[in-house]
Amino acid sequence: MNRKDIPNLIEKHVYTQYLTATKWNGQFGWVVGWNEERERFVVKMDRDGSIKLFKPYNLCYAPIPQNEKEKKLGKLVRANKLVDFEQGMELFDQLSKKYMLIWLKVTWLKNLWNGESQQDKRYIPKIQAALENIIETSQFQDLVVTAKIELAHILSWKGNVEQVTDLCMSCIGAHYGHLPELFNFLRPTTGMQDNFEIVRRTYLQSKRMIENKTCGNCDLAMFIDASTNFLTFCKNHNLNTAEECIFLRKTLASCESSGNYLLAIGRIYMLEENYEEAIRNVQIHQESISSATGNVNMISISYGIKVHCYIKLGNKSMAKKSIT
Q: Which of 114, 132, 159 is where one domain is finished?
């Protein structure tokens, strides 16, 4: 595996996560190298100085502040209390441009996008400009990729499909473990016909990374959603998707608690042409989100699946009812 396929954690402080041997979860250590043969990071554990090997998926960067200003800033970001954009930028400008602080700044901007900007749209152009500055000026290429992914979320929300595609395509060659996330943005669009081979290769490599747990932690539910879109496109062009459905089922089982689990399994059933089961799962999903948050986008997607399935079953009246 190319070293650019994984997050840059060499000489970084990390903690362990998602390990089957739970006694090792939440342990801290320093990454001292990379074992090419086993495709694992070499970690010297804080607890006893022992050397362990971990997959990238099982490690998360855990920065250590070097002074009081860095400690204060880190606490504000982790607690989501730094909501004044201008104050935050001023605090970051007072400190150096080393790896830890750029990483913390990207984390802060991500928190603002997911939180404050959803209530106050004036945050959005400011967050976008700050991410673009990191992309243009940072010397840490893995953090540039992370910043591009966060910027892709904003551009996607704005409906700038071509910009999102260009942004994500620029990361394909050196994605630092984020390939499954990038694939989420390269789902079928009007340009799928032109970019099909690139998207197909991205899907297959993302699949291998998820199976081998050599990618950074990603939203598996989103990956499955993007995959079912892509595989539906493949199926419509007479490409066999049976093996991929098995992979998606296995992957989905690891994130069954996801709120979109039923919708995802419904899409897999639809790919397998088990339209009755697809409708049943989507109907349960519809009822659950209608009584809870009433997520308009998810409801719209679920109705689309039901319409497709009813048409395939030859039940035009139910298909028409699902539209109305």
A: 159
- The pLDDT score that the predictor gives to residue 287 is 78
* pTM confidence score: 0.84
**C-alpha span between 150 and 155 (Å, rounded):** 9
What is the sign of the dihedral through the CA atoms of 69, 71, 73 and 75? negative
Residues 188 and 111: their CA atoms lie apart, in Å, by 28
Going by C-alpha positions, the residue among 91, 110, 111 that lies closest to residue 101 is: 91
The per-residue pLDDT for range 80-96, each reduced to its tens digit, is 999 999 999 999 999 98
Sign of torsion over alpha carbons 56, 59, 111, 285: positive
Query: How long a stretch of residues is the chain?
Result: 324
End-to-end CA distance of the chain: 50
Q: Which of 17, 37, 61 lies at the terminal end of a domain, its last residue? A: 61
CATH of the domain at 56: 2.30.30.140
State the total domains in the chain. Answer: 2
Q: Are residues 56 and 88 in the same domain?
A: no
Which residues form the domain of 154?
A: 64-159
What is the mean predicted confidence (pLDDT) over 144-167? 93
Q: Is 105 helix (H, G, I), strand (E, B) or coil?
A: helix
Pick the range with the lowest mean pLDDT from 125-129, 192-196, 268-272: 192-196
Per mean pLDDT, which of 194-198, 214-218, 228-232, 295-299 is the most reliable? 228-232
If asked whether residues 88 and 135 sit together in one domain, one would say: yes
Residue 265 lies in a domain: no
Neighbours of 305 (CB within 10 A): 25
Secondary structure (DSSP) of 74-113: HHHHHTT----HHHHHHHHHTS---HHHHHHHHHHHHHHH
Q: For residue 16, give the H/E element and its range.
A: strand 13-16
Q: How far is it, in rounded angstroms, from Cα 156 to Cα 214?
A: 26
DSSP state of 221: H
pLDDT band at 318 (very low <50, low <70, confident <90, very high): confident
Q: Where are the beta strands (DSSP E) in 99-165?
A: none
